[in-house]
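Hi team,

Below is the intake form for Glycosyltransferase family 1 protein from Salmonella enterica. Please confirm the fields before the structure is written into the shared record.

FORM ID: S-0412
PROTEIN: Glycosyltransferase family 1 protein
ORGANISM: Salmonella enterica
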Amino acid sequence: MLLIYTGSYPDDKCGVGDYVYNLNQEIKKNYTVNVVKLSLFELIYKIVSN
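The structure came back. Fields below:
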C-alpha cells in the first residue's frame, strides 16, 4: 500500500495536482494507493498534535 500526501489534487488548477493525479492513475494499476490532500498547515498541525 502506498500513501501520497499532497497539497493539491484535481479539481485544483495546479501542475502538482495534475502530476499527483496522473501518478496515482499509473501506480494504482499494480498497487493500492490512498491519496490524502492536506495543506502544509494541516500536515504540520497533525504532526505536532500527536
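SUMMARY LINE: The chain has a mean pLDDT of 85.

Thanks, M.
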